[in-house]
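Notebook, p. 212. Picked up where the previous page left off. The plan for this session was modest: take the two constructs that came back from the sequencing core last week, fold each one, and keep the raw output in the notebook itself so nobody has to go hunting through shared drives later. Recording the first one now, exactly as returned: residue sequence, then the structure token string.
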Amino acid sequence: MFKFGQDVGIDLGTATVIVYVKGKGIVLREPSVVAVNSNTGEVLAVGGEARRMLGRTPGNIVATRPLRDGVISDYTVTEKMLKHFINKVCGKFIFAPRIMICIPSQVTEVEKKAVIDAATQAGARKVYLIEEPIAAAIGAGIDIAKPCGNMVVDIGGGTTDIAVISLGGSVVSSSIKVAGDKFDEAIVKYIKRKHNIVIGERTAEDLKVNIGCVYPKIQDTEMDIRGRDLTTGLPKTIAVHSSEMLEALIEPAMMIVDAVHNVIERTPPELVADISDKGIYMTGGGCLIDGLDKLLQEKTGINVMIAQDTVSCVALGTGKALENLDILDGKIKR
């Protein structure tokens, strides 16, 4: 069945790719992992299937994340991954789709070009870019067109994007490479240092999701994990407590708090007054770590709210921005 060119919005995340199709909503949500045969360069699996292979592949198969810290680290693999997802969503098309892709707020021109080229090679007729904090703000239901300040902190897998938005654009923004992945790394290092056990990134992620916290909990919870004991080289099971997770995660969490503080310092006073009235909006999967909103609220003295569908906020915002593609095209043509 042939389809006319659709308008597609892609949240090209370090951890997850979410695809939004105009008129249908979110149609695909897959981990941004690709398994490639290193001898032939052939793609063996993409998304969830490839994620299950992470850390479990033989020598000739490499399961990788082609995006690191919010930007493309492996151009060829990213292009193949985009092609796979676009074909899965659009099927066979007579007119290639127009695609809008989210990028971190502080990317360089070279990094922008890499995203545009990869999407064009993957079959896009035209590529538009939108900054993640702006897409997140639209997705969180904030009216960004008004002349008043809104602060958005979008914590993804590879980057945390912080922006103060007014009149449809970002006034002050910052992007730091501390987010979900850095939390995982901190857990791996902590378990190795304290328990002398090596765990993989998937186990670290399970710990983060289940018992991770950055603010003291009323009740200490625990979880059993299995890793390799460095002394004996054999598997070993240990119980890890949420109080230990607090110790492991507080450093990267404070980096995010400091970055927010830095953006507030650079914001014009009128907008700071608006933010103090309305509060700070948190979006992205990384903000779901227990207590991060409380920590930020305590350190800044400003009310912090977590958006409703945090993980899909950026994709939903891109979807809403797709409605205005014709206006964008008109502007470009004029």
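Okay, moving on. Second construct, recorded in the same format:
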Amino acid sequence: MSERLTYLFRRYFDKTATVDERDELMRLINDPGSEAMVTSLMEEMYMSGKSAAQDPFAEGKREKILNAVLGENSTDSFTNRVVPITSNRFLWVRYAAAIAIFLCLSAGLYVYVSRNSSEQLGLTKSRNDVKPGGNKAILTLSNGTKIVLNDAKDGTLAQQGNASVVKLANGELAYKQGVSAGEAPVYNTMSTPRGGQYKLQLPDGTTVMLNAESSITYPIAFTGKERMVTISGEAYFEVAKNKNMPFRVHFGAQTVEVLGTHFNISAYNDQPAFKTTLLEGSVKISQGQENQLLVPGQQAVYEPGSHKFNVKTVDTDDILAWKNGLFLFDNTEIDNVMLQLARWYNIEVFYKGPKPTLNFTGEIRKDSNLSRVFKILESTGGAKFTINGNIVTVEKK
């Protein structure tokens, strides 16, 4: 077991472990007999990543964080922010968090909540808390009528040409039938507010998941030689195959063309670059005279300064974290963290005094109340967050 544990540890440390390998690692460290080796590996991995002289934490800070995660008794107020977990069923969650902290300290501050855990954090109650976002969207019909989808009952919501707009029992929006050939195209637009996301089934069977503060405009039936939609914000597509009618997504000055594939587009106007990530199949992305083909696992980022696409291999699980109910930070600057939180919790963010120069790494569930998220972020010791209605103030700690 020792050789396997060492191998998995190194894979985890190098960020090359698969999902199955990470799960196996958690199972192995749950074995009480591996405690000594786990401790040794944590220290070895940490020391290989950063020398003590380069340690960004004050002396003893790592031990405080470790104790807090493991729920050990301490007089330090920091440790009171996490309720000790007494159930053996969640023992591996505590060790996993501790390991993750040690592995990531060399890259920056680390926060962690297991995606598989029902662990409850001990939080100070706040009268000014914000609930997480949910399935919210507005459908704008071709005549300008707006339907608030989260308030609408299941069943037929409207008639558009020869197509029925239907809210399914699972909450998705779908279209039944379609316009007859030769009729002028009829367009609908679905938009999500801050604090909202929604799933749509297009007339051809393609499914689209919109992230918060996003929109998609599409015809109620696809006719002619192509299937064209326009988006803003972020959307995940699973495109129905039709080799005779390519599917094209237009966003900004870029277009993605596919026959049938799974991909994610992040095209928020307040971000410096648009990102297209391919999960399955193949796509061609173009802007002006520049074209780029992607294979699964690749992401294309158009660099405005160089006027060309920068292609890199990425972890697609990270890219789809938003769709799978997670905030996932990978050495993410505080500005970007707060931008993601602002979209999901519909908050306005202001900085008081010098802006904290912090990077965060880890996972937080999107179904957490905002106060819980801030307690986790504050546990790093670098920033303080104050909630007043939908206004959040961030200051250096």
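Notes on construct two before I forget. The longest strand covers residues 227-238.
Flagging for discussion at group meeting.
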